[in-house]
Specification:
104 residues, mainly alpha, globular, 5 helices
């Protein structure tokens, strides 16, 4: 629900804190994997983030299967770009915009 300038500020904070981006992207991937799993099965049994089931359910209602696939592809692309030393801020902003575009 963030605006573009808020996303940019969040990306800058992530970069300043020097989080391990592999872990961050893995968590993002697992999150959207849970959203996709819930959308397909409508059950919480196999969710990894089971304690966040309400938010997962809410996001699954707002996103199409194609949208979730775009998000998962964007996470993979961001991971490859970061490993290739592409500009971190730009890569993460593009990922955030892709996520925002695919969740209505």
């Amino acid at each position: 629900n963030l605006e573009v300038n808020q996303m940019a500020a969040a990306v800058k904070k992530i970069n300043e804190e020097k989080y391990d981006m592999n872990d961050y992207l893995d968590l993002c991937f697992i999150w959207y994997r849970d959203v996709l799993l819930y959308k397909a099965a409508a059950t919480e049994e196999q969710l990894i983030f089971r304690e966040e089931a309400y938010e997962i359910r809410r996001q699954s209602e707002k996103c199409s299967y194609a949208g979730l696939q775009h998000i998962l592809d964007a996470i993979d692309t961001a991971d490859r770009r970061i490993r290739a030393n592409v500009n971190f801020d730009l890569t993460m902003e593009m990922l955030a915009l892709t996520i925002k575009e695919n969740i209505r």
